[in-house]
Design brief:
The protein is built from 4 helices and 3 strands; from the N terminus they run H-E-H-H-E-E-H. The chain is of the alpha+beta class and 91 residues long. The chain starts with a helix and ends in a 5-residue tail after the last helix.
Amino acid sequence: MTLPARMAVLNHLDEVGESNIQEVMTSLEPIYGQEKQFTYDLFLEHLMALEANDLASLTKYELDKKEELVLYYDITEDGRSTVEKFVPKKK
């Protein structure tokens, strides 16, 4: 069963810890990459919504070599509880 994309983002943060949007997208591309809504803007929206609901937090930001803003997020304790409650364990 494929998780909804927003929950998959939260699950990714739970599994690997602090990540930027591009890292999240690279990790989830094999599953969601063929979907029309697999865009940077939508994944930014997913992370911002998770932050607004206290499931993830913005941990740092920096400029990359192209002078573009890179945002890093990590899961919160509430986010971990949500993953434990709603995401089936891998066997």
